[in-house]
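Tokens for chain A. Residues wanted.
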């Protein structure tokens, strides 16, 4: 084995993340590393914060990127807002709601679960009932875009319900940010986290977060210290906080932050509304192709995420065999099902830079030819044409 060089293959990433990274971002990453307290770097940090406010549609001061992946953004929200004994209402309609529950328990809190079937949006009536049944709850936590199923929930109403019942909201927007509307201020959301490697199409490893003034006040009024030293916002803000005076907390992932800066510049150039429309358009084209093959979607049309297409695997088809062939023959990665949906669905991502007409046609063609060669009972040869009709009409 030659361990002197690692040359990854060039793949097309159409799974649940990471998504294809724009070459501009990879180029930005290779720029010279400078110190994490270099005034020039500090200037770039301020630009990243301002561009994140745009991405999140918020004026929250406490908006910055956590130096670790989306899961660390999740943990930042929970460890700072949940103290031992606090009651948290957690909505679960897929994998990531389950992780929220784990976070609450590890913070010493009590998780009140509101569960929905996988593939469905969160039931607003059930959440309202839980808030009524637990007037002492401190936080309502939910996933806006469930990547494990492709379902989107009504974040505006959920955040409003939380406020009505004097609860803070923790919102997972890892898969929605940059792909479908995330409007932190309009929603009145309190603690929101995301990731870089989904619809921002940046390299993995960073988690943008934003906190409302209400959330900041709750953190200031904590009775106990945050049990995580690394994620304790009162310490992190010595480095990421406002003003010119910054103190060492940890060494920021300098070059990964260059990458995030470039990703946010690209998002600004395109404009959020245009990015959302592009994700919608490419989803419509993929959907036409998938349906022309005779396959169906897991999620009801109204709740479907355009950036994460959960498709039911045709009967008699071996999930792993198809994904292996796509990877080996076409350098194409699509996602497997998770948890309750493992072996039953594929998750086709059209996220960020990967959400384009070329990928739609490429994926449909590769899937059509692979399924046909395996003798699957699909309508062969119809997918690409159906997608082209939609793309032409746009
Ligand atoms: C991917 C994802 C996460 C976790 O992000 P990592 O960067 O993998 O840690 C959390 N929530 C949702 C909804 C996700 O899709």
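Reply:
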């Amino acid at each position: 084995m030659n361990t002197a060089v690692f040359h990854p293959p060039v793949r097309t990433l159409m799974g649940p993340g990471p998504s294809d990274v724009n070459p501009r971002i990879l180029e930005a990453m290779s720029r010279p590393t400078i110190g994490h307290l270099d005034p020039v770097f500090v200037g770039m940090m301020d630009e990243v914060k301002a561009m994140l406010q745009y991405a999140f549609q918020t004026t929250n001061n406490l908006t910055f990127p956590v130096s670790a992946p989306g899961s660390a953004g999740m943990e930042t929200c929970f460890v700072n807002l949940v103290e031992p004994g606090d009651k948290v209402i957690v909505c679960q309609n897929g994998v990531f709601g389950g992780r929220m529950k784990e976070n609450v328990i590890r913070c010493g809190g009590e998780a009140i679960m509101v569960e929905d079937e996988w593939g469905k949006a969160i039931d607003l009536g059930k959440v309202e009932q839980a808030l009524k049944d637990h007037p002492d709850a401190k936080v309502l936590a939910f996933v806006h875009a469930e990547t494990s199923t492709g379902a989107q929930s009504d974040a505006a109403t959920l955040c409003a319900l939380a406020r009505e019942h004097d609860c803070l909201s923790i919102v997972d927007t890892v898969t929605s940010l940059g792909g479908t509307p995330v409007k932190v201020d309009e929603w009145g959301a309190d603690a929101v986290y995301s990731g870089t490697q989904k619809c921002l199409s940046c390299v993995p490893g960073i988690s943008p977060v934003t906190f409302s003034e209400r959330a900041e006040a709750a953190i200031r009024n904590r009775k106990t210290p945050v049990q995580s030293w690394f994620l304790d916002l009162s310490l992190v803000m010595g480095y990421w906080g406002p003003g010119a005076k910054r103190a060492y907390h940890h060494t920021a992932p300098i070059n990964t932050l260059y990458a995030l800066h470039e990703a946010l510049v690209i998002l600004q150039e395109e404009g959020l509304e245009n990015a959302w429309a592009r994700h919608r358009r490419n989803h419509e084209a993929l959907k036409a192709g998938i349906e022309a093959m005779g396959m169906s979607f897991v999620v009801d049309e109204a709740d479907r995420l355009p950036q994460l297409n959960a498709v039911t695997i045709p009967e008699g088809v071996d999930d792993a065999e198809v994904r292996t062939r796509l990877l080996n023959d076409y350098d194409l990665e699509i996602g497997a099902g998770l948890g309750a949906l493992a072996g039953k669905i594929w998750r086709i991502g059209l996220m960020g830079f990967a959400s384009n007409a070329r990928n739609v046609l490429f994926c449909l063609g590769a899937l059509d030819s692979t399924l046909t060669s395996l003798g699957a009972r699909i309508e062969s040869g119809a997918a690409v044409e159906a997608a082209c009709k939609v793309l032409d009409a746009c």
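The two ends are 49 Å apart (CA to CA). The mean pLDDT is 96.
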